[in-house]
């Protein structure tokens, strides 16, 4: 009997389109992940897999801004993996931070194969465009259920209606909190506005919703779709770091910690930033949805 090749055997494994130093970085990243996790597969996806990565710096009003595309890595773990996905993700990203920062997504093989069989286009695109960095050889990827462009467009529109429009409402709640002097309630609402806005972008573009409330992670997930979006919270000065930190901590601290403090001025600045975020994200999502039928 002739052994038919598995789907991952047909995946691209070449990094030849990348500069030598990037190839070395990715080989190191893969080695760290394999040593740390013992996964089934490690797959590079996103801009570095497709050759559309960006690296540049620019100066505006005397401040240096830097935009560098992350390495996006899907780590497929064993069936029945005891550790939580986010625990594995944190371990990998912490270990890689001292070599080359990465953005990882972690799921077990059962979840990935279920998503492929249901036609989930985030994982389907990774299987089609990704670069296989490591394969244990123990498992195979499921057959992908194809979605028609009309089905994909309907799904993306539903995500926009659910997540982006909800984010708009939470921004309105934040403004109301500022007007009332309810600053903690206002900044919590603002966190929800940002979380939903980021999720809307990721869902519209990929159909995938990260399992996190961490705005830093969500921000990194959206970098691939808009440089302008990533620049709303630049974190390139102490003041910028402080503002984004106030927003990140609001999900827990603004609700449960007595010593959490935010001024009306800080909340006002953050509200305008989030308005800018939505002014960018809204048209970005609408344009993506409109483009689906003509792919």
What features would you highlight for this structure?
single chain, 295 residues, alpha+beta, Beta Polymerase, domain 2, Four Helix Bundle (Hemerythrin (Met), subunit A), 2 domains, four-stranded mixed β-sheet, two-stranded antiparallel ribbon, 12 helices, 6 strands, disordered N terminus
Write the topology of this structure:
Blueprint: H1 20-37, E1 41-45, H2 47-50, E2 55-60, E3 63-68, E4 71-77, H3 85-96, E5 102-108, H4 109-117, H5 121-129, E6 131-135, H6 149-180, H7 183-206, H8 215-222, H9 227-230, H10 238-249, H11 253-256, H12 264-291
Parallel strand pairs: 4-5
Antiparallel strand pairs: 1-4, 1-6, 2-3
Helix pairs in contact: 1-3, 6-7, 6-12, 7-8, 7-12
Domain HEPN: 164-284
Organism: Filimonas lacunae
Protein name: HEPN domain-containing protein
How would you describe this structure to a colleague?
With 295 residues, this protein is an alpha+beta fold. It has two domains: 116 residues, 2-Layer Sandwich (Beta Polymerase, domain 2), CATH 3.30.460; 143 residues, Four Helix Bundle (Hemerythrin (Met), subunit A) (Up-down Bundle), CATH 1.20.120. It has twelve helices and six strands. The strands form two sheets. Strands 5-4-1-6 form a four-stranded mixed beta sheet, with helices on both faces. A two-stranded antiparallel sheet has the order 2-3. Helix 1 packs across helix 3. It is globular, with a radius of gyration of 20 Å. The chain starts with 19 loop residues before the first helix and ends with a helix. Pfam families: HEPN (PF05168), Polbeta (PF18765). This is HEPN domain-containing protein.
């Amino acid at each position: 009997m002739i052994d038919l090749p598995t789907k991952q055997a047909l995946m691209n494994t070449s990094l030849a389109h990348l500069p030598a130093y990037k190839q070395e970085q990715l080989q190191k990243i893969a080695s760290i992940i394999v040593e740390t996790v013992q996964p089934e597969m490690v797959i590079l996806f996103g801009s570095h897999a497709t050759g559309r990565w960006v690296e540049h710096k620019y100066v505006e009003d005397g401040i240096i801004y830097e935009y560098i595309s992350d390495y996006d890595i899907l780590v497929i773990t064993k069936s029945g993996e005891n550790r939580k996905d986010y625990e594995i993700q944190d371990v990998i990203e912490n270990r890689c931070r001292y070599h080359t920062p990465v953005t990882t997504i972690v799921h077990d093989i059962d979840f990935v194969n279920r998503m492929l069989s249901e036609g989930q286009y985030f994982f389907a695109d990774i299987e089609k465009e990704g670069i296989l960095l490591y394969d244990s050889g123990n498992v195979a990827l499921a057959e992908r259920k194809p979605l028609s462009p009309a089905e994909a467009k309907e799904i993306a529109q539903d995500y926009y209606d659910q997540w982006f429009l909800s984010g708009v409402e939470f921004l309105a709640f934040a403004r109301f909190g500022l007007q009332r002097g309810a600053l903690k309630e206002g900044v919590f609402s603002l966190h929800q506005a940002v979380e939903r806005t980021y999720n809307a972008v990721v869902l519209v573009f990929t159909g995938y919703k990260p399992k996190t409330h961490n705005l830093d992670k969500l921000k990194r997930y959206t970098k691939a779709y808009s440089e302008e979006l990533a620049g709303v919270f630049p974190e390139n000065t102490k003041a910028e770091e402080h503002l984004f930190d106030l927003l990140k901590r609001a999900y827990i601290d603004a609700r449960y910690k007595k010593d959490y403090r935010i001024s009306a001025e800080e909340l006002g600045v953050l509200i305008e930033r989030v308005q800018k975020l939505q002014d960018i994200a809204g048209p970005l999502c609408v344009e993506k949805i409109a483009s689906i039928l003509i792919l």
